[in-house]
Design brief:
Organism: Sediminispirochaeta smaragdinae (strain DSM 11293 / JCM 15392 / SEBR 4228) (Spirochaeta smaragdinae)
Structural class: alpha/beta
GO molecular function, one term: DNA binding
Largest sheet: 5 strands, mixed
Keywords: Chromosome partition, DNA-binding
GO cellular component, one term: chromosome
Shape: elongated
Low-confidence stretches: 1-29, 231-241
Family: Belongs to the ParB family.
Strand content: 5-15%
CATH class of the largest domain: Mainly Alpha
Distance between the termini: 35 Å
CATH architecture of the largest domain: Orthogonal Bundle
Number of domains: 3
Length: about 300
């Protein structure tokens, strides 16, 4: 099925993820029921982790009110099963609630459409953890041969957001696991990535877990480690107490946009900006972001 044929279908189908929304007009009257045993989850679903407590709460609601909005499934496959395109959380909760059937909307989708809808549904609802989101972007790029800019347009994000997300996949597996578990944030992860020496990255990761460092504290320690200051010799960087808070705020905005350490030296009237990079690829990435002003802020 082509994008043109779908029209505003993708946008409409994505909205089914919100159980409080009404079905769009073009889909009303096209709802049927399928046995849960005839439905399978999508192996390309970006979201891999489902909050068990939230699922139980939804299951309780389904027991009382039923499934308010149908899930979206693909046409029957050669194995006699329908693949979920949107609504896996409702499917899991319905199964948990003991239902035998669930309301569905059956449509024919290309593999490209299924992947795009699954990704956009989750990203727009902010249901993915940082690693799942990064993996989904990478999968979309590889499966559909898309650039970062094209992916950003499809999911309604800035290109810099997609680029910074993809960088998280360069982290060691245990650091990625900590992101998934919520032991550190994407801001912590970006600060770790800004450290050039892999051994120092491990040191910084350990400090975050041990001392519960804030993102700002992590960034400061990352900068110190890049200057060769280890645990026994680390000194606090000069930072006058009367430094304008506006400068720290702007530094954070640069960090969010560029995904690397940015230091503003000077006053509100004049100064200089230092942007850290740690490889030729990193430098090319920064140039790409800065040269495309529409995606910077």
């Amino acid at each position: 099925m082509s994008k043109k044929a779908l029209g505003r279908g993708i946008e409409a189908l994505i909205h089914q993820a919100d159980d409080s929304l009404e079905l769009p007009e073009e889909l009303k009257g096209d709802v049927s029921s399928l046995p849960l045993r005839k439905i399978r989850t999508n192996p390309d679903q970006p979201r891999k982790h489902f909050d068990e407590e939230a699922l139980r709460e939804l299951a309780d609601s389904i027991r009382n009110q039923g499934v308010i909005q149908p899930i979206i499934v693909d046409e029957e496959s050669e194995h006699g099963l329908h693949t979920i395109v949107a609504g896996e959380r409702r499917f899991r909760a319905a199964r948990l609630a003991g239902l035998n059937e669930i309301p569905v909307i059956i449509r024919a989708f290309s593999e490209e459409d299924k992947l795009e809808i699954s990704l956009v549904e989750n990203v727009q609802r902010e249901d993915l953890n940082p690693i799942e989101e990064a993996q989904a972007y990478r999968h979309l790029m590889e499966a559909m041969n898309l650039s970062q800019d094209a992916v950003a347009k499809k999911v309604g994000k800035k290109r810099s957001t997609v680029a910074n997300s993809l960088r998280l996949l360069k982290l060691p597996e245990d650091v990625q696991d900590s992101l998934v578990k919520g032991e550190l944030t994407a801001g912590h992860a970006r600060a770790i990535l800004s450290v050039l020496n892999p051994a120092d990255q491990r040191i910084l990761y350990g400090r975050i877990l041990q001392h519960g460092l804030s993102v700002r504290e992590t960034e400061d320690q990352a900068s110190a480690l890049n200057k060769g200051m280890r645990a026994t010799e680390q000194k606090e960087e000069k930072n006058p107490a009367n430094r304008a808070p506006e400068l720290r705020s702007i530094e954070q905005k640069f960090l969010d946009a560029l995904g690397t350490k940015v230091t503003i030296r000077g006053s509100l009237k004049k100064g200089k900006i230092e942007i850290a990079y740690y490889s030729m690829d990193d430098l090319e990435r920064l140039f790409d972001i800065i040269s495309n002003r529409d995606t910077l802020f």
